Amino acid sequence: MGHDPQRAASAYLGGELGRRQREHLEAHLLACEACWGEVQAARQGRALAESAREVAPQHLRDRVRATIDATPAGRRRWAVRWAPLAAAVTLAAAVVGGLLIVERQPAQPAPIAAAVSSYRAGAGAWSGRAGPPRVRQLGDLRWHGSGRGTLAGLPVVAHTYQDTAGHRILLLQADQSFPTAVGAHHPAGSDTWVTEVDGVGLFCADRPTPSLVVGQDRAQVLLAAARLGLDTRGHVGTP
Amino acid sequence: MTAAEEFLRATLPALDLVHNLARRLVPDRADAEDLVQETYLRAWQAWTAGRPPRRVEPWLATICLNLGRDRARRAATRLEVTADTLADHPDGTDVAAEAIDRVHLAQVHRALWALPEPQRLAVTLMDLGGFTAAEAADMLGRPRGSVLAWAHRGRKRLAHLVREQEGDRHGS
User: Fold this and answer.
1) According to DSSP H, which parts of A122-208 are helical?
2) Sign of CA pseudo-dihedral B101, B102, B103, B108
3) Which of A41, A148, B43, B74 is 20 to 30 Å from the Cα of A216, by its Cα?
4) How far does B108 lie from chain A, in Å, by closest CA?
């Protein structure tokens, strides 16, 4: 092999050399400025990279645990895909309630069940920052805060609204459609639906942005949806 | 012990490794945490399907690597890593040493993200993950010589970039 400082240094620092080759190179380094420079520069870089090692935060550890706990062995693929949100919401509920309760609603798609749980918990697992919503006032309900949630890789923005009496609306927006809730009223030719799940109202529209409005009942979410400019035609008067 | 407990006992010790790898696969901290979660889910699926690994660390790292690269391809964006995304301790309890550490960490993180992807991954797997060149080559599906060369160039470039940032901070 000819004189190749880069190759020699990378093999040396990569632990690729046998004892004899290593000793030979170490002797060579004392005399060769080029090889010495290569080794020194790479050593500095390696030390810098090593210094950037981070410890995973505790909340991530908790989140992973909750995700696995919420995903029984042998669960179907779609359910596994949405399990992170269910886990995140379970975790949020646990933090709020001080008790870890794994809540499962098998009758509903996992994101829907998770949205309901999150609304009930009163505090979403919204960690990232997000800009304010286009509409900041829904009647008496004022925009309260926004954040980003975790939907198994799908970025979701959450906006919360509330009034002084404690009424709340949660507006969830995603880059792709939310699954339809089981039992939802879905007018023909419309890409919107409304329903109630365990006493929580849900309205969903695909346009202009896939949005899920969560509130205390069907009437409240329909009113909020209308004020948000979402298409509620076909739902007025829905029993 | 349930299957989930057994899985977590085997895999959670590698969480730091997966987290560090995820932080170098996607620039945003929240996205990196999503990636870690997805990695564990996929691993759990494989585990319950009767495919437990011989060695947990390379197995998890490979899953994370594949998922992270898929994401990067989908996003097809190279986000600027700002000091804001590196803010680790929002509670404002900084002491001087911690502040210096954070500045240092931010510099190195930025520099790592300025490396071409093969170099960043080689450096991450070998220097942050502690994998050998052969293991990293296996994960990346590339010859060991290439991985060694990437790691070497990446380390040199990293040192150079951090020196440059230091110069900018102190010189001007």
Assistant:
1) none
2) positive
3) A148
4) 6
pLDDT given for residue A142 in this prediction: 87
- Report the residue from B12, B20, B108 with minimal CB separation from A48: B108
Q: Which domains does chain A have, with CATH numbers?
A: 5-51 (no CATH), 58-227 (3.30.200.100)
B16 with A74: Cβ contact below 8 A = no
Share of chain A above pLDDT 70, in %: 77
Q: What is the mean pLDDT of chain A?
A: 78
Contact A48 B111 (CB under 8 A): yes
How close A201 gets to chain B, by Cα (Å)? 28
B50: pLDDT strictly greater than 50 = yes
> Could you tell me the CA-to-CA distances from A59 to A54, A125, B37, B39, B86 in Å, in that order?
14, 11, 11, 16, 17
Q: Which CATH class is domain B92-172?
A: mainly alpha
Arithmetic mean of pLDDT, B121-149:
92
Q: Is A84 in Cβ contact with B127 (below 8 Å)?
A: no
State the architecture of B1-80 in CATH terms: Orthogonal Bundle (1.10)
Complex-level ipTM = 0.81
d(CA A9, CA A126): 47
The answer to whether A76 contacts chain B (CB < 8 Å) is no
